[in-house]
Design brief:
Radius of gyration: 28 Å
Distance between the termini: 71 Å
Order of helices and strands: HHHHEHHEHHEEEHHHHHHH
Structural class: alpha/beta
């Protein structure tokens, strides 16, 4: 046995040395030439789709379509600023006739930008100062309700006003009542019905770094409207919008929890437990899904004992995330 093992080891050692010596005879430039070929093979299929892709432009169009005519449009983040401004400035008279007033809030505290806005939009009251949050609130207060005001995010506003979802944007309003709630749901349903699917273009095959933020913006808007519908107890509609948010950006746990809540309150138990099981595998350390198991036990299993067990596990899991503060 020992002789056989020695022969096997010696044979493999000889073959290894032989192949290594042969490899050294290959010119080094031939070896390194494989790297660009490999990069070409892996990169071209991903990058070639960008030549005709319109995902970024569609985001700009959908942001503009989410705004009412003659509105002040507050844009906060780079993706929204660049995409929307490009589409608006290159769309010709069709966009200009809507008389939208695009404002980049990050520059609102700059004296030069305040002068630019005063020249571009003389009909607006442009506040002066250095504190951006205060300036945004003053801009809204001085120009609403003379002009509709929408924003890409909920920003600082006067206490008498509220932000409500409007497609990819939020619109400032004095308040809500039963009539305006119906208008809110109908208007958002109309806007979302013709909205572009960000996963139809280049993002369908590869999550391009230059386009990946588009997914976040669309998913956020579907999730925000789903949250609004849930608060209004439109659970069936909320489920539909949460599902769309999950499809576009499955990495965000809040969209999964919203979807599961919507299913449980409709007593769609089979769908709820299926979604809950999948989410628990994806978000292992998130205690919110333990709480959702307790809700499943309450609404579907009708088992108070099981519900209490999960709630106890939920409390224990929360304690694991807490930092003990000794001496305070």
């Amino acid at each position: 046995i020992a002789c056989g093992l020695f022969w096997i080891v010696d044979t493999f050692n000889y073959l290894f040395i032989y192949l290594f010596k042969r490899l050294l005879n290959v010119p080094i430039y031939l070896i390194f030439s494989l790297f660009p070929l490999l990069l070409y093979y892996t990169s071209v299929p991903k990058l070639s789709t960008l030549k005709t892709d319109q995902t970024a432009e569609h985001l700009g169009y959908d942001i503009l379509a989410s705004s009412p005519d003659n509105a002040v449009v507050l844009l906060l983040e780079d993706t929204e600023v660049f995409n929307t401004s490009y589409v608006y400035l290159t769309s010709g008279s069709k966009a200009k006739n809507r008389n939208l007033k695009l404002i980049q809030t990050a520059l609102l505290n700059q004296p030069f930008y305040q002068e630019v806005l005063s020249r571009l939009y003389p009909e607006l009251s442009i506040p002066r100062g250095q504190d951006t949050d205060v300036l945004v609130a003053e801009l809204i207060e001085k120009n609403y309700p003379r002009f509709p005001i929408v924003s890409s995010l909920r920003v600082n506003r006067p206490d008498s006003l509220v932000w409500i979802p409007r497609g990819l944007l939020f619109e400032v309003k004095l308040g809500t009542n039963s009539a305006s709630i119906k208008d809110l749901v109908d208007e958002n349903t109309r806007i979302f019905s013709y909205m572009y699917d960000p996963l139809n273009g280049a993002l369908s095959s590869y999550n391009h770094p230059m386009l990946s933020d588009v997914r976040r913006i669309y998913a956020r808007s579907y999730g925000e409207f789903g949250q609004t519908l849930f608060a209004l107890k439109y659970y069936s509609k909320a489920e539909m919008y949460y599902r769309e948010a999950v499809r576009i950006l499955p990495e965000i746990s809040d969209y999964h929890t919203g979807l599961i809540w919507s299913l449980l309150l409709q007593e769609k138990c089979t769908n709820a437990i299926e979604e809950l099981s999948n989410s628990e595998k994806q978000f292992v350390s998130d205690p919110e899904f333990i709480k959702l198991n307790a809700l499943y036990a309450r609404h579907c299993l009708k088992d108070p004992k099981k519900e209490a067990e999960f709630l106890e596990k939920f409390d224990q899991k929360l304690k694991e995330f807490q930092t003990p503060l000794k001496g305070f």
